[in-house]
Amino acid sequence: MIDQIESQMVTLKLHGMRESYSRRCKQAGDEGLAHEDCVGMLVQDEVEHRKNTRIQRLLKNAAFRQPASVEGVDFTAARGLDKKQIAGLAGGRFIRDGLNVVILGPTGVGKSFLASAIGNAACRNGYTTLFYRMNALIEQMALSRAKGTYLNLLKRLSSCDLLILDDFGIKPLSPQQYQDLYDALDERGETKSTIITSQLPIANWSEVMADPVTCEAVTDRIASRAVVLQMKGDSYRRRRGVGSIQKLDKD
User: Which of 76, 125, 221, 242 is the least crowded, having the fewest Cβ atoms under 10 Å away?
Assistant: First the structure.
């Protein structure tokens, strides 16, 4: 009988219920639970299963380059981060309000990790998220133009709740590249949120986009409704390198 019920649950795609059915039946017998209590627990198991499955799907689709969480963010004074402010961003209120986040700071201080941590929290809160290294996105947009799928890529970029563009400003963009960036941001309108990490202060973004009109348009779409985080401190990668050198010297 149990096998038949579990088989029917699979047919109905009630995978959460199927996984816990035997355990809940035993629990009901051991604790003398009423039928409605047992059914209630099974329903809750299914709800949790579907929630977790969706989260895993969102995390996979986001394509983060590294595992990161808000719990792993370095909140020492040297970083210049406010723990309460980051917790607020992790709660997703900025996404509901259609705000952007600009994370600035020198190389190696953890900008990408922080952006990924906020994006991870967004996925766990049920928001669709996409993570791109800026150079990789520019290359993908150029490739999509050549393949005739540019509009499909724009639709994907515009439809996600949170778009993360990492390492903006590593090198100057060509006119076609910054036009593509403008198109992507313009398609997202004023209701979708974007996170940008950059070593360049916002006032210096003209170094990346030579055309003043496009630069102003891109900057305005991001900065006019953005939470700006200024990170400080030494490069984690440099500190790891020094540690490795010191270890070799000792050896």
Answer: 76
